[in-house]
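In response to reviewer comment 3 from the previous cycle, which asked for concrete evidence that the modeling workflow produces usable outputs, we include below a single protein chain processed end to end. The sequence was submitted unchanged, and the resulting structure tokens are shown without manual editing.
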Amino acid sequence: MFDGEKRQPYIESDSANPISIYGESKRAGEKLVLAALDRHLVVRVSWVFGPDRPSFIDAMVKRVQENAEIDAVADKFSTPTYTLDIAEMLPQLFDLDVKGGILHFADVGECSWQEYAQWALDCCQRLGVPMKAKTVGALKLKDMKNWVARRPVYSVLSSAKYTELTGVSPRTWHDAVADYIRRFYSKK
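The workflow returned the following structure tokens.
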């Protein structure tokens, strides 16, 4: 959605400047929703993970259970956001007089894919989840030649507006990932 040139979390009023067809299609969808009626709210989320469909975390855990070495991109940054946090956040908005528009929601903090994967592995290790590797190596975004869509280097979303509206700050991405690993991997 954003071009990734900014190095501070994006706020709702920042101009979207998609760098791929995927980003352009997301922005076009937002515009259609916002044009439909005054009180439609578009909630932007980032790096979503959770139990309902395989995500980056699940792919990394699977890879580390099958391989002695794994890597992830170390120079692309955003914020992982847990589906359970999104599900708890949305009903709070129904009770407020929220005007239509755009609202960002992401768990607090930022990380690279490498840091994200390493934290998931660290959580698995603490819970005794079997793994063949303990560390995640670093890849460069520019070296990911087989990816079809370009990705912005920086896509961290600020949840400050959400916190201002609700009086509630999202939990950290570290806590969210640890909770996910505890709930869905400690039993395996």
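DSSP finds six helices and eight strands in the chain. We consider this sufficient to address the reviewer's concern, and the full set will be provided in the supplementary archive.
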